[in-house]
Design a protein that fits this description.
Layout: H1 10-15, E1 22-27, E2 33-39, H2 42-49, H3 58-66, E3 69-74, H4 78-92, E4 108-111, E5 120-123, E6 132-134, H5 140-154, H6 174-177, H7 191-205, H8 210-225, H9 229-246, E7 259-267, E8 270-279, E9 282-292, H10 299-313, E10 320-322, H11 330-341, E11 346-348, H12 353-372, H13 374-395, E12 402-411, E13 414-424, E14 427-428, E15 434-437, H14 446-471, E16 486-489, H15 493-505, E17 512-517, E18 523-528, E19 531-534, H16 540-574, H17 581-591, H18 594-599, H19 602-606, H20 613-627
Parallel strand pairs: 7-10, 10-11, 12-16, 16-17
Antiparallel strand pairs: 1-2, 1-3, 4-5, 4-6, 7-8, 8-9, 12-13, 13-14, 13-15, 17-18, 18-19
Helix pairs in contact: 5-9, 8-9, 13-16, 14-15
Length: 629
């Protein structure tokens, strides 16, 4: 079970849901996102999942049984919820969004302004070319209706003839005779006049369409007065479709740039920073951060402090950062971020348009988190950063942000492995976990195995630091260059001494403590500086130590089991005459498991490119002999 939802009370969180449009994300047993949905009213929609099972499909009921927590993003309209839902599904691939896992994208309207006689078409991808793109839009039918309307209103061509090269080669098509095309193919309109029609169409797609709506409204009223009600309904639907396809969106861009949008809400001594991540022009997700502040701090103070804290530790810096208010050190911070990224980084305060509205949206989400989840965030801080501070005080350390914990796992010395687990600010940092297959130790010698693991880890880290200093490059791609503030060993005095000896040999001064267990294999305290330190079992520090110890043990055992399983598979295939390393890999790649190989016929085995009849027969005979008494 993941730490993030141990204290998540679904009933209480349902009460806090806002009655606003947005997107909700359901998390499963491993804290993975299993479903992403949209809602006009988040409170009503999300509550429905946890009410009566009547009317729900077996699939939905199965999904509900797996939900451990949920989160949500507030937006301004259902349209924005739709687009954001699509982006999040593409990014996270939730298991229960099966109907939306086909890489379907929302359509754009493309005006081929790179042609002498441009066309207006629908496309699924906005490219970096000379054409003009509008969208993306969520109502595909409305897009088609809009394009048809533009063709009729401005008599834009629909053919793909090469103009002006092919002018006069063929007679005008039926659309010309129906009054829906100006027939540039027949020279019935000049390039300048056609360009004027395109400009009107571009104005319309840009939102300057009041005169068109007025025209359609008058036609609708005229048809209604003449009792042509079906025609009147057609005009009414066209007006609705115009509204649908021209509604402005703030959650997609066309420039494919990477941006962070930051909104901050503050109240008293608490503040929340909401960061929206735009990658490749799409809003793919967001994260919020709780900030302790002084009641006298201004929004400018909080914003500048957050930027300093956040971008010191984040592995990715975008090309642009958008914030809600200017900061005194903006130019200096831009230079700092630009140097860290290796290219120009801009910090902007948008004053109008979609940029300003998206910052407002981030602020609105920050306010929602601050008001609805204030107590939850306080509890989360106590069990993470607060717990780290408790450990820091217990051990008398100057600072404690990063902890590395180590363990050894084996079965009577067979397939010995080591694990390295990392916690930063009281949370597991799984991208930094590392596995070690013991190479130099034979038999069940945990001390020697631990020495090998630590020597490899810190020797590698020192080499990376040296190469960083020589090359003057960043830490990107470096696996071991970041050293911990504290090493926690899964054991007592013996393991601690092994670690201290390795660090002394390598000239490193890093505090080391042992996580001591009682006779029932339960955590009871810490061994540090040649003495055991008792830890209050009800404290957040004790709970965090237990989580670190359990996670380190789990990670080591899982790696050991995977190696042991692979070894067992290889041992069976190793005994087959005429089947070497290449053919063993080909067998497992094709059949996935031993049972499938055992049941395969000779012809089926010969279907593998690496096998001829002789080797295929050898595999077939081997498993038949294996079955014989």
């Amino acid at each position: 079970m993941q730490d993030s939802y141990i204290n998540f009370d679904i009933k209480e969180e349902l009460k806090k849901l806002p009655q606003k449009p947005g997107v909700y994300l359901m998390h499963g047993p491993g804290d993975e996102i299993i479903y992403v949905g949209k809602a006009v009213n988040l409170k009503n929609r999300v509550r429905q999942y946890f009410q009566s099972p009547q009317g729900k499909t077996a699939k939905i009921l199965k999904m509900i049984s797996l939900i451990r927590r949920f989160e949500y993003i507030v937006v301004d309209s259902e349209l924005e919820a739709l687009v954001l839902e699509n982006n999040l599904i593409k990014e996270n691939r939730p298991k229960y969004n099966t109907l939306l896992k086909d890489d379907k994208t929302y359509p754009y309207i493309r005006v081929s302004t790179d042609e002498a006689f441009p066309r207006i078409t629908k496309t699924r991808k906005a490219k970096k070319d000379k054409a003009r793109y509008f969208g993306p839009f969520t109502n595909e039918t409305a897009v088609r209706e809009c394009i048809d309307l533009l063709h009729k209103l401005f008599k834009i061509r629909t053919c793909n003839r090469n103009l002006p090269k092919d002018i006069g080669k063929e007679r005008p098509c039926l659309y010309y005779h129906l009054g829906q095309c100006s027939a540039p193919c027949a020279g019935e309109i000049s390039e300048e006049e056609y360009a004027e029609s395109i400009e009107h169409a571009l104005d319309f797609l840009s939102g300057k369409y009041d005169y068109v709506k007025s025209y359609l409204t008058s036609k609708m009223e005229e048809c209604s007065e003449n009792l042509e009600f079906e025609r009147a309904i057609e005009y009414r639907e066209l007006i609705k479709n115009i509204d649908a396809v021209t509604e402005r969106q703030k959650v997609s861009y066309l420039d494919n740039d990477d941006r962070d949008i930051i909104g901050i809400a503050a109240e008293g001594s608490s503040a929340v920073a909401q960061v929206f991540f735009i990658r490749g022009g799409r809003l793919i997700g967001r994260e919020h951060f709780f900030i302790d502040t002084d009641p006298n701090d201004t929004l400018t103070d909080i914003t500048e402090s957050f930027l300093n804290r956040y971008y010191t530790g984040t592995p990715f810096i975008p090309k642009e950062i958008r914030i809600q208010c200017d900061i005194p050190q903006r130019e200096l911070m831009e230079r700092w971020l630009s140097e860290a990224k290796g290219q120009r980084v801009h910090i902007n305060v948008p004053k109008k348009g979609s940029g300003e509205k998206l910052v407002e949206l981030a602020v609105k989400n920050a306010e929602t988190v601050l008001q609805k989840d204030k107590e939850k965030l306080k509890r989360e801080e106590l069990r993470t950063i607060g717990a780290m501070n408790e450990i820091k005080d217990l051990l008398g350390l100057y600072q404690l942000q990063r902890v590395e914990s180590y363990d050894i796992s084996n079965t009577n010395g067979y397939e010995s492995v080591g694990s390295m687990v990392v916690f930063e600010d009281g949370r597991p940092k799984r991208n930094d976990y590392r596995k070690f297959k013991i190479k130099t130790v034979a038999g069940p010698d945990d001390y020697a195995s631990m020495r090998e693991v630590l020597m490899r880890r810190f020797s590698h880290g020192l080499r990376e630091k040296e190469s960083l200093n020589e090359a003057g490059s960043s830490e990107a791609g470096m696996k071991f260059s970041k050293f911990p503030d504290l090493i926690m060993m899964d054991g007592g005095k013996g393991q601690v001494n092994i670690a201290l000896k390795v660090l002394t040999e390598l000239g490193q001064d890093i505090p080391v403590c042992g996580m001591v267990k009682d006779d029932r294999h339960r955590t009871r305290g810490l061994y540090f500086d040649n003495k055991e330190i008792a830890v209050d079992s009800g404290s957040e520090a004790f709970k965090l130590i237990t989580r670190i110890q359990d996670e380190t043990h789990r990670f080591a055992i899982e790696y050991h089991k995977s190696l042991r399983s692979k070894a067992q598979v290889r041992s069976v295939l190793d005994d087959i005459p005429g089947v070497g390393k290449v053919r063993r890999k080909a067998l497992m790649r094709t059949f996935k498991d031993i049972e499938s190989i055992r049941n395969a016929g000779v012809e089926e085995l010969m279907g593998i490119p690496e096998f001829d009849r002789r080797s295929a027969q050898s595999v077939y005979d081997f498993f038949r002999q294996e079955k014989s008494p």
